Amino acid sequence: MIAMRPLPSFRQLSYLVAVVDLCHFGKAADACGVTQSTLSAGIRELEEVLGAPLLERTKRQVIATPLGRDMAARARELLKAAEDMVDAARSSKDTMAGPLRLGVIPTIGPFVLPHAMPRLRKAFPRLRLFLREEQTAPLLAKLRAGELDAVLLALPYAVGDDLEAIDIADDPFSAVYPPGRAEPPGKPVRPGDIAFENLLLLEDGHCLRDQALAACHLEGARRNEEFQGTSLHTLVQMVAAGLGITLLPQMAIDAGILRGTKLETRPLAGKPSSRRIGLAWRRRSARKETFRTLAAALKDELAKGRRAVPR
């Protein structure tokens, strides 16, 4: 018989990751759903198994040793692999069942999910969607760390070789003007004309800012750096106040973001000016069929929403 060495348990590894991430025993215990004494005992048992201290404990704080940080990084990979094993087993029975943690960016979520969620629940009653809204970079970081299963985002965006993304829809941009400024209303406007306008954009950190400029070929346009929006709704209010013009994606316009205003829109002339809506997931995930099915459902939902808008 081969003698087996004592090995860490997944529970012990999850305790270590929580403590290293939160730097606090009490908060880590709450995050793991156990008492502080249980968590502390688990960490001590882990240190005994590994034969080395992982944490420096004081009355005021807890600090991971260099080995502790290394072990926590390895533990995250092991825990993520274990989750993928469970996901693979579940998806073999029903690909559209169980929990799915979906990240979504702020320039998509409010304009898609209110209509899509009820239909998704009806189509996939055994799928439990948990949503998190945040900007693209932190969402993808959480996706890589295993905190999210998939992310609904706008492309183009450098997602990296470790992630896989599929296109769902094309989302054209339109120029939005204060009342009486879009002359003539509805007629396509040349990007060159927009370059001379006081262009209002989202603040740094929102991928829509750069995507709109690139898609509309306006990288050198004059931008209002004094007034920057924190959301598309803020941009609408700024244009309504006469501070300038802006660029909005069609899904926001279709969802009624201009309702109650007298703002006017003009499509952009020339080359297609749009962003792409996509769904991204970890390339090694065992739930690829789940994500492709979800992407197809969202694609159909976006197409229905576009057809339902009167032109």
Q: How is this structure best described in words?
A:
The chain has 311 residues and is an alpha/beta fold. It has 2 domains: 10-88, Orthogonal Bundle (Arc Repressor Mutant, subunit A); 98-311, 3-Layer(aba) Sandwich (D-Maltodextrin-Binding Protein, domain 2), CATH 3.40.190.290. Helix content is 44%, strand content 20%. The protein has helices at residues 10-22, 25-32, 36-50, 66-93, 109-123, 136-144, 191-194, 207-215, 232-240, 250-254, 288-308; strands spanning 55-57, 62-64, 98-104, 127-133, 150-155, 163-177, 199-200, 245-249, 264-267, 274-282. The strands form 2 sheets. Strands 3, 4, 5, 6, 7, 8, 9 and 10 form an 8-stranded mixed β-sheet that branches. It has a two-stranded antiparallel sheet with strand order 1-2. A hairpin with a 4-residue loop joins strand 1 and strand 2. Helix 1 (10-22) packs across helix 2 (25-32) and helix 1 (10-22) crosses helix 4 (66-93). The longest helix is centred in the N-terminal third of the chain and has 28 residues, at 66-93. The N and C termini lie far apart (76 Å).
